[in-house]
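Quick one: structure for this chain?
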Amino acid sequence: MKYLLILIGLCTQVCIAQKMATFHFVINKNETSSKKTYYVTLQQLKKLSKDKNLMELRVDGLDMEDKGGVDRTFSTGDLGQGKNFMSSTSAITDIYALKKPLQFTVNRGMVNIDSLKWKDEIKQQLKDWAIKEDVIASISANTFSELSNLVHSLYFSKLPVLDGTTANDVNITEDGVTYHILKRNKSMVSLNYTKADSTSILEGNASFDPKTNLVDIGNRNVTYSFLVEGGQRIKNYNNLSIRRSGKYYSKAIEDDYYEMIVNGSYWSSALGQQDKTDSLKLFQYIELYEPKYAKNPEYVTTKLRHLQSFGDYKIYEKALKSISPNLIAHTSHLSNKLSFGNIPIDEFRQIIPLLDDGQLYSYLQQTLSQHVLRLDTLSLQYLQIVTNQFGERERIAASPMYLWTTAMQTEHVDTLKRIQEEILNMERPYWEQGNAGRYALLVQQLLSKKGASDVQKIQYIIDKIRPLYEDETDKKRFLQKAHLAYAHYLAYESTPVDQEEQALSYLEKAAYYSPKSGTEKAYGSFYDRVFLKSKENYSEDYFKLLSKRGKNDVALQSYIQEFLNNPGSGFHSLSTFYRENYDSANFGNFFKNDIIPQLPDAPSFLLKDIADKDFSSKQLEGKWTVVDFWGTWCGPCVAEMPKLNQYYLGLKQDKMSNIAFMSIACRDTKEKVHRFLSDHNYEIPVLISDNQVEITYKVREYPSKYIVTPEGKLISTDFGFDWQTLVAQLSKL
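Got it. Here's what it folds into:
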């Protein structure tokens, strides 16, 4: 009898377990900047009452990719294909979802989540992962929001229970949403719904079980728009689709994999303190995970990133040389591996196809080209391989440089002209991706040295480059603009002396195409200037020629415009020209009365300092003020801080100074900034950004310095510019 009762009990438990419903879903989230696919299992754990059930949601798999310009992907189906997954804090949310089953209750489709319990569990896991204090709050909030939305999306509970409506009701409006019933019976309700207002449009459809409100298939699309500075209207969208599916099958991911990628990420302090890697912790990390994950790309890039942060670069280089290129494909480490030079030919052939377009361009135009310039034998061999042994992408990227190397090694003018014609006849992709403009100009220089300069050929080069600059979708358009500036200068130099007006016209255009702001100073053009021995800016050459021809007033207006375009670098030239050609003693009044009013207004702000006291931009009025945008996370910012602190202390001690200094910490927290200042005994005044002030000031990089005039006008300076000298000169006007 005893065994019979046990058997009956076991059978009863099995029957009950079998009745516990299990559902599988595929949920697609497609937004403006990202795309995610969740594979989830929804299981009934316990029946709490007639209509109330305890449920559990498990995320079995995830595919994701960023579409906002970040090459970031991840898939539980193939961990080896992921890229830059941990570059965003949203990765922590995704990993938590994959690691932690979520329990909640549901009553006739109405989901009830124990918010306090969920949030406590999330925070505890983040603490176990040693997530940094300055991001733990935002990650916790985002994780709760993402997962609760995931749970709610499985139930169509937006529409009130249909029991109170009649079978003839086909249109129902609730909370501004109009539902149109397409089909309705005991087992299924199908409908679509819409809502529109001045900023958004909601459209959707769904089929669901009216007993449980569980969605069988559904689609929800929201498009919304908003105005940004300048009156431009930005449109975004958010699409969510759900469908029942079979069970998701993939190779199980072990828990220590998640520990490995999270603890090694930028968002965790498990391997260091205060953004510095602890060597002992890192080598313990490597010892723990190397045997199991030595061929996992996420582990390899994490290890390399931390090794790279050490002062001894040789440790990083040694580790990098031993790693297969496939494990670091599309990362900066692959580019670094190439930059070490003397790569075996077989490994070089393996690396090139793994480079993305940007990396291939940078390697060829900024690294290999410098060695090719010296006609280095191995580098020439590398170039020949890229040009002739790969596909169309590599041939386009390398062919213009390859032709130039041939030109460097010939003394025959006819051969140079043939090479020039071959480059000039290349299609647009060679000029975009192969930097043909640089090599066309270099070959033209070789011809000029041999007395075969041809203004018409230079004009042809200009005609090839101009459409590239005028195409606002071309990411290299400012590099092309720099080519245009030099090409016009080269035409100016090549114009016969008896054609003064034509020469002046070319020089005017060289000045016109010279960069007018920091944004236009393309980084890549630095390398072009090294090769071409060109200038960054030809404006002053043009202004001096105007003055030489007796057009001082025209030249002065040009100097003024140049200053307004480049106030940081344009002041010295304007001051020198005015003092040399007009009343030197009157320059201060001229600058205050004629120039300062033309400057843009400095954006106003109201921020808090690290003592939580309000500070208004109005408090800067009456002095020349240097405003520094920085962050504790920014290496160059931290490196210059001793110098800035000394500068501030000097101003503080000089009671007669009419210069003030203020800094604004961006992407930071008050606690982190306070700790940083205290640890280094810095006294500089710091305001905490509201995440908007850097936008209104159009900060492009960190650190950035701006000078605010006593009248509240704004003068911007480029990174690395001698702003101390400039503000000192301005304050004495």
